[in-house]
Every structure is written in structure tokens, then in C-alpha cells.
Predict the 3D structure of the following.
Amino acid sequence: MRAIVVSRPGGHSSLELQERPNPEPRPGEARVAVKAIGVNFADIAVRLGLYEAAKGRYPIVPGFEFSGVVDRAPEGGRWRAGDPVFGVTRFGAYSSSVVVPQDQLFPCPAGWDFPQCAGIPAVYLTAYYALFHVAHVEAGDDLLIHSAAGGVGTALLQLARIAGCRAIGVVGSEHKTALCLRLGAEAVILRDHRWERRAKELAPSGYDAVFDANGVSTPRPGFRLLAPGGRLVVYGFAELLSKGSGGASWLKLGWRALRVPRFSPLEMTASNRAVMGFNVVFLFHRKELIKSAMERLLGWIGEGKVSKVPVTSFPLEQAGRAHQALESGQTMGKLVLTL
Ligand SMILES: NC(=O)c1ccc[n+]([C@@H]2O[C@H](COP(=O)([O-])OP(=O)(O)OC[C@H]3O[C@@H](n4cnc5c(N)ncnc54)[C@H](OP(=O)(O)O)[C@@H]3O)[C@@H](O)[C@H]2O)c1
């Protein structure tokens, strides 16, 4: 099989295409001939050596999600050779062949092609967990969603609409506005020097929840924008990296890390607002949670309540180009690698 391997963390050239022996499934597992792989911001952190859960695991094959066709599954299991599936894995998806426990695979929804299916699990599970398990949103809530045109952002917008919430999107570039409005944002704010004032005008009583994966400059204003009882959910730190740089400048990284805001329990209690964080990659072992989330998501997809978002494809061997595009901060929807 072919796999993209990071032997030593670094720039785009550290994503190396290698030939490896085909993995064999053990009882309870299935092997998938991969057709497409979802690219996530976390893969960039893995490539750079900044991803906590990947530490000590190099050489590593990055990648959390894939789609393809089952090509080997033990008799009597849930899957049969030829089934079109998508799935999650804790690393290892940047590969032409993936072996995972059978309950980490899900059926491709009708009318969704392999690139679209590969882009489902990471962003929708993240958005689902953030909305329903962390922020506990309810119908009628006012939500502020940063990076609303990105992978997780477009999933948050769609699930917020399903939950009956009013969502305001924030984006870094004007060209992203139309997509957010199409996916259900009531209004979209450009992240310029006036964004906080504009956000305040759109929800004068404050937001019930703010979703932030910028991580450095926006969480503090996001906390200020909360209504009493509101929750600030910080789930990413894209701003730690320089847009489009390809490598990590340790000096700049360290400086930005110092600027990640700190919130004291005292100020949270005094203002009746909360700050929360999570990482879905640590939830893959919670089989019941993943199963019920995915059942609901696939139900909504089947009912046409979740629409397809733009997908930009790159060949597996050009994984570096896909990372470069995501690092530019200009992409919309999902990026995938195809075979
Ligand atoms: N905690 C979790 O479980 C979890 C799971 C999945 C993803 N995440 C996090 O969620 C975020 C979104 O992930 P994604 O894969 O869906 O990516 P994405 O949103 O499609 O792309 C990242 C977006 O972040 C914004 N951004 C802000 N500063 C940036 C910078 N310095 N460089 C590049 N982009 C920058 C850009 O949008 P705007 O300029 O429009 O804001 C960019 O389009 C990431 O921070 C990721 O680490 C967390």
C-alpha cells in the first residue's frame, strides 16, 4: 500500500510517500481500500510535531478520516467486501489501505461521493459534540461561530440551524460570506477591527454560546460578548501558526502562545459565564457516543437537512499542497486527498 509518512516533523517536504506492506485485519476489524481522505487542521499540527496526541509516535501516518470500499472483513461481521463506507481512525488515514475496528466504519449516505464522505466524520463529530455535549445549545439560542466557512464552521452552521438556533458567522475574508448565508447563518461578520462591535450590535443581550478555533485574538472578546449563563467553547488554536508559512517559527509560536488568554474561575463565577474546551480525538474510544452521534448525523443527511459543502480535492501524493491550501486561511468547506 501507499502511505504518506512523517518521519520527522517539519515543513511540507516532511510528508513523504512510501510503500508499506498491506495491513491485515484482526477479528473485529475490517480493511478498507481507501478512495478519499479528509484533511484537517490537526494534520498540520501532526506534521509540525505540535499535536500532543501524536508525540512519541513518529514516524507517523497522519489522518483521522477516510472513505472507500471494504476489501477484507471477517465472516459474520457487520461489513462485507464491496461495501462503500467512511470511517474514523486515530492517525493512519493518509494511506491507500486502512484497518480499523468495524464499529469505526459507517455506511456512505446515498448520493454522497467518496470525497464528500471522507469529509464527514471529523468536522461533524466536532460540531455535534461542541453544540450538544459541551455547549448544550437549545432552540432559540443566539450563537456566534468563528471561521464559519471552514470545515468545522460549516458543520456548526448546519447543525445549529437543525437545533433551531440563530447563528451569526465570523469569517476572515469577504469571499466566504455567501457560503455561510447559504448554510443558514443569519448574518456574517468580517473579522476586521470592528468585528466585536458588529457582533454586539447583532445580539445586544449577548450570545448564549461562542465557538472559537482561532484561539489567540478572539476568545477574550468572545467572552465579553457572552450573555449571562453563556458558554465560550474554544476548540482550536489556528492563530498560533503564521498563515501560509508552511513551517513553525518557534519564536513566533512561543510569543503567540503567551497571548492565548487565561480565564480565572473567579471572573467566570462573578460574571456567570463559562469557558470550555475539548478534543474529539480523545473520544474515539467512546463507542456509544460516536455511534449515537453518527446515527443522528446520518439521519439528518438522509432527510436532506445537512447539505454537501464545497470539497477541494488533491491527489494523495500532493498532500503538501493540501496542507499549504489549508494553511493559507482562504479555503472553504473541506479539503480531501484522493486516490
Ligand atoms: N478540538 C477538536 O476536537 C477539534 C476537531 C477538529 C478541528 N479542530 C480545530 O478546528 C479548527 C478548524 O479546523 P478545520 O480543519 O475545519 O479547518 P478550517 O476551519 O477549514 O480552516 C481553518 C480556518 O481557520 C481560520 N484561521 C485563523 N487563523 C489562521 C491561521 N493563522 N492560519 C490558517 N487559518 C487560520 C481561517 O478561517 P477565517 O479566517 O475565515 O476565520 C481558516 O480558514 C482548527 O483550529 C482545528 O484545529 C478542533
